[in-house]
Design brief:
Blueprint lengths: L3 E12 L2 E12 L3 E5 L6 H9 L6 E6 L8 H4 L3 E4 L11 H10 L7 H7 L15 H13 L5 E5 L7 H16 L3 E6 L2 H7 L2 E6 L2 E6 L1 H8 L1 E7 L7 H7 L2 E6 L2 E8 L1 H13 L6 E6 L2 H8 L6
Main location: membrane
GO molecular function: ATP binding; ATP hydrolysis activity
Membrane topology: Peripheral membrane protein
């Protein structure tokens, strides 16, 4: 079995004079979830279109399930599940008709009624697609992507427009795909979605890869941004602030807060400073930067 479901190497996508994707490389190991993050215009959807075989790259290469998405398109498509932002289904057909139609294309489809129940669509089975709400359309589009038992699923903003309950149901379903050995490449604007679901995260900015790693690796590399220390009140903290080049405050009697870009060495410096001051430290708490902090720092200069 191939190690990676998706292999993208130095892919370039251009629209006239505009370069939407500029030398991007990434891989999706079998049975894992990769989340592709980035602002609008970062190049996420263009990269997905290359992987799905809907357009060829202007440079570089892509292999999906060991095949060329363009040259081997007909062989590849039955093995893929694709959920598009726009839905890609017939607006005049009912939800049940749409799902049964796509199930008929598959050699071994999932049970349609089970999918309707799982995604909370049973009561909308006889409702025309155009009459569904945005969140209901998203859930149906997800069902369409999954009904053929794909080996690899592409999800473009899968929970856009969903309420909290539907989003949680979708997360559980996507997580169950990984447990069944299905590979997933998804784009999302929801940082908590990526942090909750993804084994690996790629952050794109203006068509290039700004950072890559597991959610834990990305947040650990960003370091600590808040250190709270409980000790004797009234210490002369100005010298500590100068030593660390960080903001140091006493928010309450003996409740000290050190805010800034800190690492384990900084933590050691803080504790050593309190020891030299003859202060007994009774509690230490840290707050690591979240994936959202990392994302905002990397994309702060992106063109909106």
């Amino acid at each position: 079995m191939l190690e990676n479901a998706v292999e993208v190497r130095d892919v370039v996508v251009k629209y006239g004079e505009v370069t939407a994707v500029d030398g991007v490389s990434l891989s999706v190991p079998r049975g894992s979830i990769l989340a592709l993050l980035g602002n609008n215009g970062a190049g996420k959807t263009s990269l997905l279109q290359v992987c799905e075989g809907f357009r060829g790259p202007d440079g570089g290469s892509a292999r999906v399930l060991g095949l060329d998405p363009i040259a081997d398109h007909d062989d590849l498509m039955p093995r893929l599940g694709i959920m598009l932002q726009s839905g890609g289904v017939y607006p005049w057909a009912t939800a049940g008709e749409i799902l049964r139609l796509f199930a008929s294309y598959a050699a071994d489809p999932l049970d349609v009624d089970m999918l309707l129940d799982r995604l909370g669509l049973r009561k909308f089975a006889k409702t025309r697609f155009r009459r569904l709400s945005g969140g209901e359309q998203q859930r149906l589009s997800l069902a369409v992507a999954l009904v053929g038992r794909p080996e690899l699923v592409f999800l473009d903003e899968p929970t856009a427009g969903m309420d909290v309950g539907a989003r949680q149901t979708t997360w559980e379903l996507v997580d169950s795909l990984r447990a069944d050995g299905v590979s997933v490449l998804l784009t999302t604007h929801l940082l908590d979605e990526a942090e909750s679901l993804a084994d690996h995260v790629v952050i794109m900015d203006n068509g290039t890869v700004a950072a890559t790693g597991t959610p834990a690796e990305l947040t650990a590399a960003a370091g600590i941004d808040l250190l709270q220390v409980r000790a004797e009140p009234g210490l002369a903290i100005a010298t500590l602030a100068e030593q660390l080049d960080a903001k140091v405050t006493e928010d309450g009697p003996g409740e000290y807060a050190i805010a800034g870009t800190l690492d384990t060495e900084s933590l050691a410096e803080v504790l050593a400073w309190f020891a030299r001051a003859g202060a007994q430290v009774t509690a230490v708490n840290t707050r690591r930067r979240t994936l959202e902090d990392v994302y905002l720092a990397l994309t702060a200069g992106a063109t909106r």
